[in-house]
Amino acid sequence: MTGKKIWPEILKELEEICKIHEQAQGNYEKCREFNQRLAELLDRLEDLEYYSEADRVMGLLISCSPKVGSHCEKGQYVSEKLKEMRKAFQEES
Known about the structure:
Layout: H1 7-24, H2 28-47, H3 51-63, H4 75-92
C-alpha cells in the first residue's frame, strides 16, 4: 500500500467522514450521511484491494445503524474506533 498515489485521497476522505460523525450525534440525517460515506469508503478500499483497511471499515459499519428519533447507542464506541483507524491509516501511509 505504501507509495500508492491514491492513499492521501483515502486519508482525506476518512478525515471528512470523522467530521461528519462528530456532527451526527443526535442528528439522524448526518448519521445516515456518515453511514453512506463509510460504505462508499469500504467499496473504494475493496476496489483498491486494501482488504485489511476495508475490514476495519466493515467493523464500523456493522456497529452503525442509524435510527430515526433515537440516540446512537454506539456513538462513543464508533468515535474511538474511528480515532484508532485514522491513526493506523496515517501510520501506513
